Structure prediction request, 439 residues.
Amino acid sequence: MTNETRLTPAELEEISGRAERDLTELFRDIDRIALRNTARILDAFREEKVSDSCFAGTTGYGYDDRGREILDAVWSRVFGTSLSLVRHNFVNGTHALSTALFGLLRPGDTLLSVTGKPYDTLDQVIGIGGAKGDGSLADFGVKYSQIEMTGGIAGGRIDIPAVLEKLEADHSVKVVFVQRSKGYMNRRTLTPGEITGLTRAVRERRRDVYVVVDNCYGEFTCDTEPEADLIVGSLIKNPGGGMALTGGYITGTPRAVELASYRLTTVGTGREVGATLGQNRNMFMGLFYAPHTTAQALKTAHFAAYVFDRLGYETFPSWDQPRADIIQTVVTHSREKLCALCGGIQSGSPVDSYVEPTPWGMPGYSDEVIMAAGCFVQGASVELSADGPLREPYTAFMQGGLTFESGRYGVLAAAARVGRAGIGDAAAEAARTPAGGNN
Prediction:
């Protein structure tokens, strides 16, 4: 890094001071959303009579686990759904999504993704990742189709007319799949209202089609959650509030959740079994903390956008835009700067701050990926983390922050490592052309 791109501590403090002044009103809006979401959760806890007895764990089959049953009921009230499946034994969000898709789809059916290609880890689940014979949906005769979003990066919208046309022309479509957040694409995140609009349009046209939403990173960033047949997410992201040690959730309409539960356990037993092994307390507490924790992550994202914008990097969303998820992208246009940014986040983390992240071929990804995650819960994206695939335009995807204070610290550590976007480096040339399409 040249002297021109380095930052002094005084410069970083000056930028951060301006950021906090300019972000004051946005932070107030975030706090207001957190208050409303907290009220909704407290109402659900009271209505379902959550008590200390709910935190007792079960073993073996887990029959009649009162805590598990009440947690499912609380989740449904909070998300405005009929039935839920909240379990510590979902190993990640991809597992929960895979369970949902395998539960609903049958040989000859078509899975229609209406937000372009899904997140990389679903490639092999669907069967578009090159591997054959490993038990993907394609191996079981499920077809796949996708519709791209309209309007480019800033204006990306679901092409509802194209979706309805596809449903009219192809009666094999059984699941319409929506990815709320951007994944490893530089596009805008969908709001709950937009997804609900799609769901209602699909139901008017085809009552036999399920709408499935990958809700990861979006929970509690807005006043409401989307309406769909299945809403799916991870407990080590927003809804686990930094407390859940693992797990995921599936919530939605009764028949859809029942079918998904048969894939998690067995046909016939479904939601009725599954020992909780003492994890109920963490999941209840995580949901209780979730609106506040999500608010801290949102503030960290706005702050990161402000700081890196002032340093000359492309950021999306911009610091003054409202958000429907906790992800902040910083386009570095450089392998070295992407790695430096992730290294800075790691150095500003409470756990493993002395470790230097390096790119590696993670299972389920088509490119090498670098990940910084100095977390109390391994890989927890609601804690401050940064990652990105090693491919053009070398975009860092930042998310999380259990507290704004620690998030601010980590962002400034990353900024110090990366420095300004140099006038002579690849960023200057690349900034003259539209970003995006990094999938």
In short: Residues 343 and 356 are 6 Å apart (CA to CA). DSSP finds 13 helices and twelve strands in the chain.
